[in-house]
Design a protein that fits this description.
Heterodimer of SbcC and SbcD. 58% of the residues lie in helices and 11% in strands. It is built from 29 helices and 17 strands. A hairpin with an 8-residue loop joins strand 1 and strand 2.
């Protein structure tokens, strides 16, 4: 599910960016939402969400849990079963004990119970993992962790080992909530992710390793805490989309480069032209395809010349023979007709025709103008016209013969001229061209005389036909060889054009995907550091409290953009006002303090379900001033968190007693046979009683002061015990912290608060319980009336009665 506040951050940045096209923003937003949404955006089906108002309510806080107890048997330094009781409410508890006392076994048991592992053992040699069980116990080895879960109530987390178990990892975990059956494993808690994100337990070794570990471990931890995995996932999606959409364009560019190199090895003109077109920034795919399939308007010159030789047409022998015969026949026919029509007959025909015209023009009959004797009369006219008609028929036949001759002559000359001249191709040597050219020259040297022409074509045809057949074969072989040589290049070029056309369709998508990836990469750092800012501010504030007497001032803590596989938190510092890298200038104690400053904000995030923080030996290598600073930090955290600190260093409980009035101090000791004893050295109620007893024993204290102060101390002790009992009861019942504190604040007087502690109901009467035994009534009178007027009862007896009442209330917690 998308982290909506994070998506809102991206939406807001996108809305503020007017320079980036919408389609680029849509890809970014869709990538933030998921794979399906990104696919929709690529397919132009995506509808982006609208940014929610800045004042939108924050997400509901998760259900929280407090620690009630840790019970250990046969584990590490604890032999027979012992239980460390904890108060399940905000507050500070110090578990003190020397090295080897078994106190850290409780801390490790808590870590193992909630995480099924131990940081200390993970970093140790393999042999450590085998030496986990206590040698002084033959019975069961087990861990029990009591929890008070808000809205759930009492819960127990158990860890058991089989009786014959030798390996630590043979453990069996389970969870059991009040009134329910056990559930195997820890999934029932719902903390699988939270225990890694907000790890609430840290040891001295882990603090040291926090900054010594590979840099990406802290980077990834902070990224997870801040919910920034969605940005990383979106960047991965966009990077994948960028690679997918750029695959064909990139492949086309790569193949174009390889194709240009290959074409350089080909001496075909088409290869030269293809290489020229491929060198252009923008490829003319139409022209390149035409080269590949041979559809160019102007084919290569050598191929054109070869094709011209192949296309030379020599007429069929039958056609030549028929043409020669037709010419001879036409010549003979005309000669025969011409003999019959002599020149004298032609002249007589002309004179006769002119006489008929004269007869027509000058009115009919008249003497013959030639001889002067005969008459040009009607009879003559009839005879002349008959003669002219006969002559016209002869002339027509003669004209037809002449036309037949011309057609025969044109036909044979067309055959002669229809054969193209064989031309030697450029850069191609053909052995048959010379003889073919000679044969062609002889063939086309046709004589003017018709009969000689007919003889000529019959004589030269055989030579022409054989020489042209030879050049046909040689030119066709050369043409085929060139086509065969070009074919693989043409096929490769055609395939590339197909791919390039598909790549052109992907270019806009690839450009948009790249722009989206770069946009998110640029803005991710802004979002990371915006989200880190509160945590970084907390870390600097904690460091300011811990850095007592240190000249190192912590400055910026940022999450720079990853560089390749490098992910590292940037921690900047100043030393005496000069910039410096934090880690390089810090002492061991300062590094531990810095690690705490980074750990505590992470462990106490509002989103964490853990209302407790557990620190095991955090003060090693710290000087006294830093310990005081740590106690103040822990006391502040304890206002809203249950803080449990295990320590072998006596300086910590001393500082806690001095600086935190309401803290608890528990001591753990270990005797023979790994028998561990747990003793509560002080709690707030007990300290108030001790102070009251000290006042009573001190003879130097004026009586009037004694009778005014003791009731106040007694009232504080009773209210503290009642508060602890009420908080324990309420949290065990599953109430939330807000409900518990509100109920306490609404109980205005001491009886109503005692009623909360006893019954969980401030309105319920506790008069009968307070009246018996009698010390309870006396104690309440001391705490009530004594606070408004001086104590009238014996101070020593009054404090004794109050102590018993406090004990009764403790038994209810």
């Amino acid at each position: 599910m998308t982290n909506m506040p994070l998506l809102d951050d991206v939406l807001a940045l996108a809305d503020d960016d007017s320079a980036t096209p919408d389609e680029t923003k849509y890809l970014v937003i869709a990538a933030m939402e998921g794979d399906e949404e990104l696919a929709d955006a690529v397919g132009e089906r995506y509808i982006p969400p609208e940014a929610r108002p800045a004042e939108a309510p924050a997400a509901t806080k998760p259900t929280g849990a407090y620690l009630r107890s840790v019970t250990v048997s046969g584990f590490r330094g604890v032999g027979p079963e012992r239980t460390l009781e904890l108060h399940p409410a905000p507050g500070l508890t110090v578990v003190a004990g020397r090295n080897g006392s078994g106190k850290s076994s409780f801390a490790e048991a808590l870590e193992v119970g909630l995480t099924r592992t131990s940081y200390r053992w993970e970093e140790r040699p393999k042999g450590w993992v085998l030496n986990w069980d206590n040698l002084h116990v033959d019975g069961p080895r087990r861990i029990r962790i009591g929890l008070a879960e808000e809205a759930v109530g009492s819960t127990v987390v158990g860890v058991d080992w089989p009786a014959d178990a030798t390996r630590f990892d043979a453990l069996q975990s389970w969870v059991q909530r009040g009134g329910e059956r056990r559930q195997g494993g820890l999934d029932g808690l719902g903390w699988t992710a939270a225990i890694h994100l907000y790890r609430p337990i840290v040891s001295h070794e882990e603090l040291g390793g926090l900054l010594a570990a590979p840099p990406k471990r802290l980077y990834e931890a902070l990224t997870s805490i801040l919910g920034l995995e969605e940005i990383a996932a979106a960047q991965t999606r966009l990077d994948r989309l960028r690679a997918e959409t750029a695959a064909r364009p990139d492949a086309a560019r790569t193949e174009a480069t390889a194709l240009k190199r290959a074409l350089a090895d080909c001496d075909d003109e088409r290869a030269t032209e293809a290489a020229r077109l491929l060198r252009k920034h923008t490829h003319d795919l139409v022209a390149l395809r035409a080269l590949a399939i041979g559809a160019t308007g102007t084919p290569p010159r050598a191929l054109s010349q070869l094709r011209a030789l192949i296309d030379i047409v020599v007429p069929e022998r039958e056609a030549v023979e028929a043409a020669a015969k037709s010419l001879r026949d036409a010549v003979g026919a005309l000669a025969e007709l011409a003999g019959d029509l002599s020149d004298r007959a032609t002249q007589q025909f002309i004179v006769l025709r002119q006489a008929v015209e004269l007869h027509d023009q000058h009115g009919g009959d008249q003497p013959c103008p030639v001889c002067g004797i005969g008459e040009l009369d009607k009879e003559w006219r009839s005879s002349a016209e008959a003669a002219l008609a006969a002559r016209a028929d002869d002339e027509r036949i003669l004209g037809d013969a002449r036309r037949d001759l011309q057609r025969a002559r044109d036909a044979i000359r067309a055959l002669v001229g229809g054969v193209s001249c064989p031309t030697e191709p450029d850069d191609v040597v053909l052995t048959s061209v010379g003889s073919a050219t000679e044969a062609w020259s002889a063939w086309t040297a046709a004589p003017a005389d018709d009969l000689q022409l007919a003889d000529h074509v019959m004589r030269e045809y055989g030579r022409l036909q054989s020489s042209v057949a030879a050049i046909h074969a040689e030119a066709a072989a050369e043409w085929a060889a060139r086509q065969d040589a070009w074919a693989p290049y043409a096929t490769r070029l055609g395939t590339w054009v197909d791919n390039a056309e598909a790549a052109q369709a992907d270019e806009p998508k690839a450009a948009t995907a790249k722009a989206a990836f770069e946009w998110l990469k640029a803005h991710a750092e802004i979002i990371r550091n915006r989200r880190l800012a509160p945590l970084a501010d907390d870390a600097r504030r904690i460091w300011a409290a811990l850095r007592q007497e240190s000249n190192v001032d912590l400055k910026a803590i940022t999450l720079p953009a990853p560089r390749g596989n490098t992910r590292q938190v940037s921690i900047e510092a100043e030393v005496d006002g000069s910039d410096a890298g934090a880690l390089g200038v810090m002492s061991t104690g300062e590094l531990h303090a810095l690690a705490l400053a980074l750990f505590l904000p992470r462990a106490t995030r509002p989103e964490s379900p853990f209302r407790f923080v557990v620190l095991d030996d955090p003060v090693q290598a710290m000087d006294p001033s830093k310990i005081d600073g740590l106690v103040r930090v822990l006391a502040e955290l304890a206002q809203t968190r249950q803080v449990v600190v295990f320590s072998h260093d006596d300086r910590l409980p001393e500082a806690v007693r001095r600086l935190v009035a309401d803290a608890r101090v528990v001591e753990v000791t270990r005797g023979i046979g790994s028998v561990v004893e747990i003793q509560e050295l002080s709690d707030p109620a007990e300290r108030d009683l001790q102070d009251a007893r000290a006042f009573v024993r001190d003879d130097a204290v004026p009586d009037d002061l004694l009778r005014r102060v003791v009731p106040r101390l007694c009232r504080s002790a009773v209210e503290t015990a009642a508060r602890d009992a009420w908080f324990a009861r309420a949290f065990d019942a599953g109430s939330t912290r807000q409900q518990v504190e509100a109920a306490w604040e609404s109980a205005r007087n001491q009886p109503s608060r005692i009623a909360l502690a006893l019954h969980g109901d401030s309105g319920r009467s506790v008069k009968r319980w307070l009246d018996s035994p009698s010390y309870r009534k006396i104690a309440v009178e001391v705490c009530g009336g004594g606070n408004h007027r001086a104590l009238t009862a014996d101070p020593k007896y009054a404090v004794e009665c109050v102590g018993k009442l406090v004990g009764d209330l403790r038994s209810r917690s």
